[in-house]
Each structure stands twice: as C-alpha cells, then as structure tokens.
Amino acid sequence: MVVNLSKHYSVLCDWINEIRDMEVQIDRMRFRRNLERIGEVAAYEISKNLSFNQVDTQTPLGISSSKSLQEQPILGTILRAGLPLHQGLLNYFDKADNAFISAYRKHHPDGSFEISLEYITCPDLENRVVILSDPMLATGASLVKTIQALREEGNPKEIHIVCVIACTVGIEYVHRNEPNVKIWCGAIDDELTAKGYIVPGLGDAGDLAYGIKQQS
Ligand code: URA
C-alpha cells in the first residue's frame, strides 16, 4: 500500500516545493525544518491507523472518556539523511523507542554502487509497530536491505516506511521484496537516473541537510 500525502493539496505541498527549490534549499536550517514538518504530518496520518485503548481521564470537573494510543511505535531511521524526518516523527510519537541504521552507497570506479550497511542499534522488534524513515525512496535497495537487517532483531507486526519523495521504480522494488510494508510519501516522481537520483527530486538530501560529503 502507498499513501501519497500530497494527493489532496495542503500546506504540505508548500513545504515539498521549498525543499525542491534550488533557491530555497540553500537555507539548510529551513531544509531540515521542512523535512521535520513533513515527518510530523506523516506521524499524525499514520497514528490514525494504529490501535487505541479506551481511557477515562479525570478533569477538575468530571471524567472525560476517550481513546489513547495502545503502544508507541519504534521509530527507525537511516543515517544521516533520515535524521530530520525522524525528528518530526519523534515530535509526535514522543515516547517512542528508536533504531538507527547506517546504510550508504559505496561507489565503484565504474559509477555503479552497492549499499553498505555497517551499523544498527535498536530495541527488540518482536511484534512491534516499526516506522522507518528515509527521505528519498530511490532504488529502494537501502530500505530493503535495512528491513532485512531489522528482521534479525525480531519480527515486527507492522512496518511503515515514511519518505518525502518516492520514485515509482523504488516503490515497486520495495513492494516486490516486502509486500506487506505500507509506504507513506510526500510526493511521487517518475524518473530515476542511472546514478540513482530521483528526477525532478531535490538533489542529495543528506548533503542539503548537513553539507557535502566526500565520495566513498
Ligand atoms: N538520495 C538522495 O538524496 N537523492 C536522490 O535523488 C536519491 C537518493
């Protein structure tokens, strides 16, 4: 299942336009904050699909009957580009446990690359709801590799992926390998370059958020 969060126009479209816009994206703080705001919207939308318990709350004047989130999800993100989006999710799921994964593109001299996954830290995932964030769903290779690594830490009952821009081939790749994950994205673009960049996309999300890295 894929949910496109900008299917119905909202203020979210303005934030996505800003992170794509070359003149605006040079403001790193604004870029990170927009990713964070998109994470907040995704958290709110995902929360509508989670399980709730009946609760009674004592107010100064009486008892209010309502519902409360049954359990906090585990929020996982892929370093480093995922950090602002992760923070947005954490702003809303403020009692969540967290997982961090380092996965990066190790480039070969011929221009091809492989995903190198070197570090993972997370709580027991058995029977938990996991929300994994990565701003750009390009080939889908790093997300699939990450999910496979996470499954060694327990079998989650649900996995949600949150991304800001997804491309169609990446969505298909993830669903071929992980048919039960739900993908929540801010926008869907059609093109992926041979070097694995989404078009029109926005460029390199990690570099825009944190500065240009040396190629590895
Ligand atoms: N990662 C990025 O930061 N940008 C892309 O276009 C693809 C992957």
Tell me what you see in this structure.
The structure is a single chain. The two termini are 34 Å apart. Strands 1, 4, 5, 6, 7, 8, 9 and 10 form an eight-stranded mixed β-sheet that branches. The protein has one domain: Rossmann fold (3-Layer(aba) Sandwich), CATH 3.40.50.2020. It is globular. The model has no long low-confidence stretch (mean pLDDT 96). By secondary structure, it is of the alpha/beta class. It is built from six helices and twelve strands. The longest helix has 20 residues, at 28-47. Strand 4, helix 3 (83-92) and strand 5 (97-107) form a beta-alpha-beta unit. The chain has helices at 11-20, 28-47, 83-92, 141-151, 168-177, 205-210, and strands spanning 2-4, 52-58, 63-69, 74-79, 97-107, 113-121, 129-133, 136-137, 158-167, 182-189, 191-192, 198-199. Helices cover 31% and strands 33% of the residues. Bound molecules: uracil. Uracil binds next to helix 6.
Q: Nutshell version of this structure?
A:
This protein has six helices and twelve strands.
- H-E order: EHHEEEHEEEEHEHEEEH
Rg: 18 Å
* Number of H- or I-type helical stretches: 6
| Broad structural category | alpha/beta
Strand count, sense and barrel status of the largest sheet are: 8 strands, mixed
CATH architecture annotation name: 3-Layer(aba) Sandwich
- Overall geometry comes to globular
Terminal-residue CA separation: 34 Å
Determine the CATH topology. Answer: Rossmann fold
- Average per-residue pLDDT, rounded, comes to 96
Q: How many individual domains?
A: 1
Poorly predicted residue ranges: none
Please estimate the helix content.
25-40%
Chemical compounds bound to the protein: uracil
According to CATH, what is the class? Alpha Beta
Strand content: 25-35%
Number of E-type strands = 12
